[in-house]
Design a protein that fits this description.
Distance between the termini of chain A: 39 Å
Helix content of chain A: 10-25%
Largest sheet of chain A: 4 strands, parallel
Strand order of the largest sheet of chain A: 1-2-3-4
Number of strands of chain A: 11
Number of domains of chain B: 2
CATH class of the largest domain in chain B: Mainly Beta
Strand content of chain B: 35-45%
Order of helices and strands of chain A: EEEEEHHEEEEEHEH
Strand content of chain A: 25-35%
Radius of gyration of chain B: 25 Å
Helix content of chain B: under 10%
Number of helices of chain A: 4
Number of helices of chain B: 1
Number of domains of chain A: 2
CATH superfamily of the largest domain in chain B: Single-stranded right-handed beta-helix, Pectin lyase-like
Shape of chain B: elongated
Distance between the termini of chain B: 41 Å
CATH topology of the largest domain in chain B: Pectate Lyase C-like
Largest sheet of chain B: 19 strands, parallel
Largest interface: A-B, 55 and 63 residues
Oligomer: heterodimer
Structural class of chain A: alpha/beta
């Protein structure tokens, strides 16, 4: 089984975007920030294991294993990598040799722990619908020419003096059960969901108006 | 002022080493009735004189035979004749227990927050069990006489405070002058912030926020210092504040929101941070009411790279900003997003900028600068060429000997 640590996965936003992946252990990876449960691994992916931080809204192949781990071994493992790579500020996209250093130090730390040390479970089901609600909009005038790259790869030049709009949003989320999440991840034609109330994703703003699932459906 | 050591393998019978109990008085069979604890062994309690309130208030540690019910309470009164102490909260589930007063307390329960007073220090030797409620609520403040309440991991360790739902790892409560150090904060919810700095003068030092459904650290009330922290993996802003805050030497990366958002009108001091691959802005002064020259936004020696929106955005045309010795590279990937952007007015109106490196290759549709004219204040001090990071995608922002950022700052300093 291959090992990757701290991989940046943010670009994989669409179903199947990560391609076919087999026999891989993901450790503390930076998962994509998805608005709804999504199968980012293509059909045929299998043998995956996940350890560490929460892979929110990533819907994994059925045989994926979510490993327990010792949180007190994370720090010595991280320090071992940073000691070997003094210019690193954080564990991002570790090379295979660095990932091996991480795993070796992790296992050595665990071997020395007494039975009273705490074990954490890697979260499996953290699934939600998220939507953004516009709170402000402003028009700005471009001061320089810019090159706009389209999704199809083509480019167009937007000239200085053109106006564009910048929009600010508030985010809202509504929790999903594993069954609801699976139905959405599999893109079922008919998804029966309770009319759940959304809550503001930043709970410093409790005064924000909750919106209903119907609101979300209307915007989706 | 007490040091509380927290260890999942703690015991009242430990020998008094650095993480074990070394009490001034102890026994093996305390009897609890309501809030009154009767102590066996007939100890002299004269040493408790004057220590039933205030900064030197004593605490008693109660332990059962299995270490499963270890608790600590502040002593509010004592009777040296009856050999009893009255405690702050009636113990539950403890009828007969070994006990210890003073010294270093070792226990497993993390339900200890009500016992802290100014000057107390809590040292976690290892990681406590996760919780489905706020992990720690700051019930009492530190003060200028007795100092901070410190809550930290032991040297050479970084215990993890994990919350398994949308609650917070650190809830502000009555927080003021609290100090958090050598900890990792992990919140598994689909929303909700991770940690609050709500009371004046709170310090987060060498704390890693590794996971969260909302913002990483949110700060309100003046005078917070966020130093040497790492924030990653969260669904909101890495650091969000609305009052005077110092952000120094932090590494903020791979978050869904902004690296730093100042949504208030107070001064901020942002220095020596690496802000990398945030989906929102790198640094965002979002208030449109920052008009007082006495509240400058001071940014120096920051490296901001690869953010999905503008690298540094100022919403207020009258915001007094000092921007020096920093690198902004490849931020903004769509029309209307820039490395650095004054959305109203211009950086030359009331702000100052010099000795910076602004580089944007034009990829994705973003552009380099809006509302800022290079070298407007100091000739030949700013440039727009590639800073040549060693491995930006892998998080290595060191610069090589051929980098234009080498010795290009003031006075002769490296940028970023």
């Amino acid at each position: 089984m291959a090992l990757i640590v701290g991989a940046r996965m943010q670009g994989f936003m669409q179903p199947g975007a990560a391609g076919v992946v087999r026999d891989m252990l993901f450790v503390n990876c930076h998962w994509p920030k998805l608005d709804r449960p999504t199968r980012i691994f293509a059909e045929g992916s299998a043998g995956l294991s996940v350890m560490g931080t929460t892979p929110r809204n990533v819907w994994f192949p059925d045989d994926t294993v979510f490993l327990d781990y010792y949180p007190d071994a994370l720090y010595p493992a991280e320090q071992a990598v940073l000691k070997a790579m003094p210019f690193r500020r954080s564990l991002v996209n570790l090379t295979p040799p660095e990932a091996e250093i991480w795993m070796k130090a992790y296992q050595e730390a665990v071997a020395g722990f007494p039975p009273t040390h705490t074990v954490f479970s890697t979260p499996r089901h953290v699934n939600f619908l998220r939507h953004r609600e516009e709170v402000s909009r402003r028009t700005i005038e471009l001061r320089t020419d810019i090159v706009q790259r389209n999704p199809d790869g083509s480019e167009q030049i937007i000239k200085a003096g053109s106006t564009i709009e910048k929009v600010e949003y508030d985010e809202f989320v509504a929790d999903l059960t594993p069954e609801q999440a699976q139905a959405i991840a599999e893109r079922a034609e008919r998804v029966e969901l309770a009319d759940a109330a959304y809550r503001h994703s930043n709970e410093q703003h409790p005064d924000k108006r909750p919106v209903t699932l119907a609101d979300w459906k209307a915007r989706a | 002022m007490t040091t509380f050591f927290v260890d999942t393998g703690g015991s009242a019978n430990n020998p008094g080493t650095s993480d074990a109990n070394s009490p001034a008085a102890n026994g093996s069979a305390a009897t609890v009735s309501g809030s009154v604890v009767t102590l066996d062994g007939s100890p002299s309690l004269a040493f408790l004189s004057g220590r039933t309130s205030g900064a030197t208030q004593a605490a008693i540690y109660l332990n059962d035979a299995t270490n499963a019910n270890q608790k600590i309470f502040k002593i509010t009164a004592y009777d040296d004749t009856a050999k009893t102490v009255t405690v702050s909260v009636a113990p539950t589930g403890v009828t007969s227990s070994s006990w210890a007063i003073d010294g270093r307390h070792v226990f497993t329960s993390a339900n200890i927050e009500a016992t802290f007073t100014a000057g107390d220090q809590v040292v976690l030797n290892n990681t406590p069990a996760s919780k489905a409620v706020d992990f720690l609520t700051c019930r009492t403040p530190g003060d200028s006489a007795s100092g901070f309440i410190k809550f930290r991991g032991a040297s050479g360790s970084r215990p993890v405070l994990q919350v398994t739902n949308t609650n917070q790892c650190i809830e502000g409560g009555s927080q003021a002058l609290w100090w958090f150090e050598n900890l990792e904060l992990d919140q598994d919810g689909a929303s909700g912030n991770v940690a609050q700095a709500t009371g004046a003068g709170t310090v987060f030092y060498n704390v890693k926020v590794s996971d969260g459904g909302g913002a990483g650290i949110t700060a309100s009330t003046n005078g917070h210092r966020l130093i040497g922290n790492e924030v990653t993996g969260i669904l909101g802003d890495a650091i969000s504040f609305n009052t005077l805050t110092v952000c120094h030497g932090n590494n903020l990366h791979d978050v869904s929101g902004d690296g730093i958002e100042n949504n208030g009108t107070s001064a901020m001091f942002v220095s020596f941070n690496v802000i990398d691959t945030c989906a929102g802005r790198g640094i965002f002064a979002s208030s449109t009411s920052i008009t007082s020259p006495g509240n400058p936004l001071f940014l120096t020696n920051n490296t901001v790279y690869g953010c999905g929106d503008t690298g540094f955005e100022v919403a207020d045309a009258d915001a007094p900003v000092v921007l020096v010795n920093s690198i902004f590279s490849e931020n903004g990937n769509a029309a209307g997003e820039y490395n650095v952007e004054w959305t109203a007015g211009a950086a030359e109106n009331v702000s100052f900028h010099a000795w910076n490196n602004f580089y944007h290759s034009g990829g994705g549709g973003g552009a380099n600068l809006s509302g800022l004219t290079v070298n407007a204040h100091v000739a030949s001090s700013e440039f727009t060429t590639d800073p040549q990071f060693t491995d930006a995608a892998g998080g290595n922002f060191s610069i090589g000997s051929s980098s234009p950022a080498k010795a290009a700052g003031f006075p002769g300093a490296f940028l970023g």
